Amino acid sequence: MSEALVRSDPIPAGPFLGRDASLKAAPRLARYVLRARASAAVEKVLGAQIPTAIGGFANGVACLGPDEWLMFASDGRESPVDESGSVSVTEVSDRSVGIILEGARAAEILATGCPLDLDHFAVGRATRTIYETVEIVIVREAMDRFHIEVWRSFAPWLWTALTTAATE
């Protein structure tokens, strides 16, 4: 039996510098999917206001659907607990990795495979979408900065696709 389980990161630890853009691994985060019929129940569990409009992002929480939120927290944070049973909380920290895409060409690079009109995608907005055929979640953190969440198994492919687009 193995003495230690070693998990390698699916994307390089160091940044990639392209033409007017860079990519790097996002800091390690804890990720939780919260499902509930009412946003008030989620707010009670988290002890903070959350976005209620689909596409909203506030306090580290993205509203991805009428009853679904994705929460980013510092790595090692304990899972939120709902004693009432009205909120489903699932830790998905190991499922996904984050990629930070920033620079003057960030939106242009992301648009090479994403069907969204990123010129009208406001800062502070979050959504689930695709890059070519891979499901991603994007958060626009600034006009020239995106946080991209992708499932770990697709991360090497997405990293290669984005770095290729950044060199063109």
The fraction of residues in strands falls at 35-45%
Query: Strand order of the main beta sheet, please?
Result: 1-2-8-11-10-9
For the residues shown, what is the average pLDDT? Answer: 92
**Computed Rg:** 17 Å
Write the layout of secondary structure elements.
Blueprint lengths: L15 E3 L2 E5 L3 E8 L2 H8 L10 E2 L2 E5 L2 E7 L12 E5 L4 E7 L3 H6 L14 E6 L2 E9 L2 E7 L3 H13 L1
Antiparallel strand pairs: 1-2, 2-8, 3-6, 3-7, 4-5, 5-6, 8-11, 9-10, 10-11
Q: Would you mind describing this structure in some detail?
A:
There is one protein chain. The chain is of the alpha+beta class. It folds into 2 domains: 85 residues, Gyrase A, domain 2 (2-Layer Sandwich), CATH 3.30.1360.120; 63 residues, Alpha-Beta Plaits. It is 16% helix and 38% strand. It is globular and about 50 Å long. 30% of the residues are buried.
Protein traits:
single chain; 168 residues; alpha+beta; Gyrase A, domain 2; Alpha-Beta Plaits; 2 domains; six-stranded antiparallel β-sheet; 16% helix
Write a compact overview of the structure shown.
The chain is an alpha+beta fold and 168 residues long. The chain has helices at residues 39-46, 106-111, 155-167, and strands at residues 16-18, 21-25, 29-36, 57-58, 61-65, 68-74, 87-91, 96-102, 126-131, 134-142, 145-151.
